[in-house]
Amino acid sequence: MTASRPSRPAAPARALLAGLAALVAATAAAGAAAATPMAYVPNQGSGTLSVIDTGTDQVVATIPAGKKPRGTVISLDGRTAYVSDQPDSSLVLVDLEQRRPVGQVALGESPEGVGISADGRWVAAAVEESNDVVFVDTRSNTKAFTVQVRGKNPEHAEFTPDGRYVFVSAEEGGAVDVIDFAQRREVAQIPVGGRPRGIGFSPDSRIAYVAAETASTLFVIDARSFKVIDQVKAGLRSNGVLVAPGGKEVYVSNGGDASVSVLDAASRRFVATIPVGQRPWNMAITPDGKKLYVACGRSDAVSVIDTERRVRIADVPVGHLPWGVAIR
């Protein structure tokens, strides 16, 4: 007895199946494209945000963002950028889907660095002239409370990953102020080298890294006892700090050397130095940790570093005087 062969679908059915397969493939491709992180670069001299597609390293949009945008963070849903605008003393809210400003929150004279809590609810803005940190509730996009710090001219305000503390670098005071978020008050001041600037944390919130610019040194701080436990000589005029996902490496930008140094967190020793554009400043890294984006103020560009090979792979032209980078 001859076995029967499976029948082939009729031509219309085959066409339908092919169409469904094409639709699935197109949907998957669109999803992958949508998932590509974007890098947002505030340009102080241009009053804009440059939007870089991290898949292609091309600028795909330029968005107005106040008169002198500086510190920038992105909401967890990727829809809103919170950008400090120094001349207007405000936090500008930029709709990233409509690509335009949609509101602002009054902060105080000369706001600079901003940080966002891990849950996305709170934005902390360092306000230079009043020596304050202003906390904005992103649920209502209103100012919730203000904490004055002892340090003079605060530049960065960064939440620990667990949200318990906010560390504030006070440029003119040579110290880092620590705010207990639940208590809404300063609970410690940690002396470091001259002109502390960038701040980063280990993923478990136990270690803080602070770059002091005039000391050209990275300070390693126990974030529970608030004591300096190590200091490592960095490049000339070290300023930006970025801790890689997983916490094994710490990147420090050196403004005077046009370079980024790579610290091995376990040994607390620099293991590589990567040339970048002129006056590197603040940085951001892709979620997978593979590409580091460095704002280079005097080059009007963002240098892109392949973190696995530890080489610069691109310089992306942006606006005038880029201050930093935020990725979402």
Protein described:
The N and C termini lie far apart (65 Å). The chain has one helix and 28 strands. With 328 residues, it is mainly beta.
In brief:
The protein is mainly beta and 328 residues long.
- Helix/strand/pairing category: mainly beta
Question: Gap between N and C termini, in Å?
Answer: 65 Å
> What percent of residues are in strands?
over 45%
* Strands ordered across the widest β-sheet: 3-2-1-28
Secondary-structure element pattern, one letter each: HEEEEEEEEEEEEEEEEEEEEEEEEEEEE
The low-pLDDT segments are 1-6, 20-33
What can be said about the biggest beta sheet?
A: 4 strands, antiparallel
Large-scale geometry: globular
Q: Count the helices. How many?
A: 1
Helix content: under 10%
Mean pLDDT: 92
Total beta-strand segments: 28
Tell me the Rg in angstroms. Answer: 22 Å
